[in-house]
Task: inverse folding
């Protein structure tokens, strides 16, 4: 059931027809169904949402949506959009934290171009005190993503971290390598449908790996981000941290905008740092469908929203 749901929604995320329909209804009004999970299509909407999140005592990272761009012109536009995003965030006075995907910056076209574009973002980000998280995409991109990350790390860029997925078999050694470097890791379960040759297929196996890796990161990682909405994973992390005598400032919890707001508030009120990913941009549909694949119960909410819009 776990792998099946992810496969269905991943396939739907690639449907041009569904994307056109969603684009018509998803952002039509403030109450449109996609706005539960997406801050909006513009950076101004993302800033407004971020202010509300920060007012609730939560932390933020802004995520300009877009992946697998196909042309050099699109790559350059995405890079320039991120550079502009830095300026907007500084002017707005909100927290200086962003996330990005390397296929936005040209990883699927040319590695050297991607490295140069990432550097174009990290340079001003470093000057202005930003932290930049490289998000992990599906498994064909894992090694290249880590290679590019380490290239920049060896060039003394320290304002950058990376996400790793517990669903992949290889992640145990990747966590070890990141810990050796002193790099900051965001641990997630993984939102992509992956083949059995590279990834666990049962939720119980993914969960067990997540808790194992969370413990390794708590023991020897550098300010890890434990990114999950799963109460069992959160409780397991809290229990292990308490058992080892780790303070709440040793790590942070991360969640996605619009998902488990009750849990976000609960953890924040208990003194944990809780950071929300604030996604925005016109290319929101693939992200949105992966969120449904992770939590199919959200589908009823979406269908009610579509019917209301019509």
Result:
């Amino acid at each position: 059931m776990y792998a099946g749901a992810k496969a269905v929604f991943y396939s739907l995320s690639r449907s041009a027809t569904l994307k056109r329909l969603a684009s018509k209804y998803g952002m039509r009004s403030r109450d449109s169904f996609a706005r539960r999970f997406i801050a909006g299509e513009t950076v101004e909407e993302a800033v407004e949402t971020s202010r509300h999140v920060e007012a609730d005592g939560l932390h933020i990272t802004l995520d300009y949506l877009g992946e697998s761009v196909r042309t050099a012109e699109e790559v350059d536009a995405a890079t320039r959009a991120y550079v502009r995003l830095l300026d907007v965030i500084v002017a707005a006075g909100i927290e200086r934290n962003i996330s990005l995907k390397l296929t936005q910056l040209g990883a699927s076209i040319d590695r050297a171009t991607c490295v140069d574009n990432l550097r174009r973002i990290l340079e001003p980000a470093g000057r202005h005190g930003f932290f930049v998280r490289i998000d992990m995409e599906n498994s064909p991109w894992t090694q290249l993503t880590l290679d590019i990350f380490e290239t920049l790390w060896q060039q003394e860029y320290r304002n950058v971290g990376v996400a790793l997925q517990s669903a992949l078999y290889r992640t145990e050694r990747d966590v070890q390598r990141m810990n050796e470097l002193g790099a900051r890791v965001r641990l997630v379960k993984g939102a992509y449908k992956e083949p059995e040759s590279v990834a666990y297929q049962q939720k119980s196996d993914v969960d067990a790996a997540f808790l194992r890796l969370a413990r390794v990161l708590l023991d020897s990682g550098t300010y890890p981000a434990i990114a999950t909405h799963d109460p069992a994973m959160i409780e397991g992390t809290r229990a292990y941290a308490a058992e080892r005598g780790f303070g709440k400032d040793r790590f942070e919890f991360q969640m996605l905008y619009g998902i488990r707001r009750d849990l976000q508030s609960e953890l924040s009120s208990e003194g944990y740092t809780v950071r929300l990913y604030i996604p925005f941009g016109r290319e929101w549909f693939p992200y949105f469908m992966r969120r449904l694949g992770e939590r199919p119960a959200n589908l009823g909410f979406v269908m009610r929203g579509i019917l209301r819009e019509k």
Summary: Confidence is low (pLDDT under 50) at residues 301-310. The two ends are 31 Å apart (CA to CA). Residues 39-283 form a domain with the TIM Barrel fold (CATH 3.20.20.220).
